[in-house]
Amino acid sequence: xxxxxxxxxxxxxxxxxxxxxxxxxxxxxxxxxxxxxxxxxxxxxxxxxxxxxxxxxxxxxxxxxxxxxxxxxxxxxxxxxxxxxxxxxxxxxxxxxxxxxxxxxxxxxxxxxxxxxxxxxxxxxxxxxxxxxxxxxxxxxxxxxxxxxxxxxxxxxxxxxxxxxxxxxxxxxxxxxxxxxxxxxxxxxxxxxxxxxxxxxxxxxxxxxxxxxxxxxxxxxxxxxxxxxxxxxxxxxxxxxxxxxxxxxxxxxxxxxxxxxxxxxxxxxxxxxxxxxxxxxxxxxxxxxxxxxxxxxxxxxxxxxxxxxxxxxxxxxxxxxxxxxxxxxxxxxxxxx
Amino acid sequence: xxxxxxxxxxxxxxxxxxxxxxxxxxxxxxxxxxxxxxxxxxxxxxxxxxxxxxxxxxxxxxxxxxxxxxxxxxxxxxxxxxxxxxxxxxxxxxxxxxxxxxxxxxxxxxxxxxxxxxxxxxxxxxxxxxxxxxxxxxxxxxxxxxxxxxxxxxxxxxxxxxxxxxxxxxxxxxxxxxxxxxxxxxxxxxxxxxxxxxxxxxxxxxxxxxxxxxxxxxxxxxxxxxxxxxxxxxxxxxxxxxxxxxxxxxxxxxxxxxxxxxxxxxxxxxxxxxxxxxxxxxxxxxxxxxxxxxxxxxxxxxxxxxxxxxxxxxxxxxxxxxxxxxxxxxxxxxxxx
Lengths: 337, 337
Fold this sequence. Notes:
Two copies of one chain form a homodimer. Chain A folds into two domains: 1-122 and 293-322, 3-Layer(aba) Sandwich (Isopropylmalate Dehydrogenase), CATH 3.40.718; 127-290, Isopropylmalate Dehydrogenase. Helix content of chain A is 47%, strand content 17%. Chain A is built from 13 helices and eleven strands. In chain A, α8 (194-204) links the parallel β7 and β8 (210-215). Chain A starts with a strand and ends with a helix. At the A-B interface, α9 and α10 of A face α9 and α10 of B. Chains A, B: Pfam families: FA_synthesis. Chains A, B: InterPro entries: FA_synthesis, Phospholipid_synth_PlsX-like.
């Protein structure tokens, strides 16, 4: 693999115009002098979009053509078989071939995971990749996985997520002995189903994991632990519920329902700030979420991300490449299995 | 069963002093002239707490002694076998014997459910009771079940929850043809696990249910549907995550982090309002949640509820008794199975 930092970008996938993603890549190139991009998608469209951009930036861009696009409705298993000429597949392929060190896509999560597993493989000992996100919470950010890649995990999968997340935080983010909580419906040991109780036993049996116990939905935003481990179903629901509750507050403040006089005014004036908070609550928009467990950096941006938001996903990929995330995690994984 | 409205109150269970719950019962009696309470717990303590209260109110109170208390740590199955002299058991027994029409408890949810199933039985066709709560959302309140009584539901259980919730809304709350959504990690039909996809088929097969499709975590607070149906694990997590995200916003506003000058002041001044919103987001505190599926009204108050919050749980029980919730639901259930 070359020493040069190269990120493959799935230009075509996502709800918004691919132009935003190309513009975000140009922004990112101007910030990082040593960086290269492989823009994957319709070659005519990409070249057309690059017209007028600085020659120096264009010199650090390679275009790889792909004539298919994975849509949001595509069933992952079908996309895997029938869309091997898609921008998503070709972008991941740049990583599997060692041409790029990371892939960024705003496309169909299930398809990205299926193709990622097929092309990049998982780390030894890891059955499934999971999506990890960074959530603003009181005092410090909380990292959480899985955010929706897997909706029927068993105890062993949850244990693997705890190991992956813990290594990401200690080896890549730089948090010493990160504290870990397992998401449940209560803190008492009798709470939850067999699956989380058994996962707790597996995690407790490993002294390398700084496990704190069960945590609940509100703990995600309270900074109770550095890392919240969960199945992707409740993880995804919790994240979106947090965003929904914040939007509700912002909505009621905007309406000023139940408020009178000065308080209505104050509330109105504080609104931009609340809106800012609401946006921050949704990490898929704000931070980019990355797949953990694959033998390659894959960052998933929100499908509806605008240029700035997509830029965050690109920054996340740059950070993971610069810090050698995959090698560091791979290196330490062995001792856990 | 007598025509008199009687509510059995588990005085002893809950995190706070039982005095708050007795005070809430006295408040409730003063609002509802035809109402009676059976206070269940330590008879000496209860009599002592009633000293000094108005004679008329005391004339509508019966005390039933119980010398055991179910704790929050008690395993439901053990509580069921060994705590048949507890205030929780005795309070539920008042309903099963037909002396009271409802039971209210702030105790251990799992034990309340286990004892409720044993003493009151479920409606014909219903395997498990679920907890339904009322959540403030944009435009209208959203009802949601299950909020944590069951953490490993199958598709048939989810279907039963949809039927129970729909009947509660149409027959008791008075919402015509309530709209129903099934909680999932995405709106597309391919999303989620086998369990929610099969539950969707079961619900769609019944024309009596006004089903709208899959909903996501944010929809709970957006008023997308009248009723959100889910397993108790993600349901509980979503609810608490919503409360956590709101608390986070309130915290950041209090700190004024990242704000300067006037905006900091505005934010500070709007804070009481945001706090009020945060409290509203947590329905277990604000509305009381009730068990659906049992052949008797059982309302679950938050363990840490104060006098006012416990009062909401009592009001919910009064409402369900006045509207004959159990009979109305029982009457209509047959056509769904």
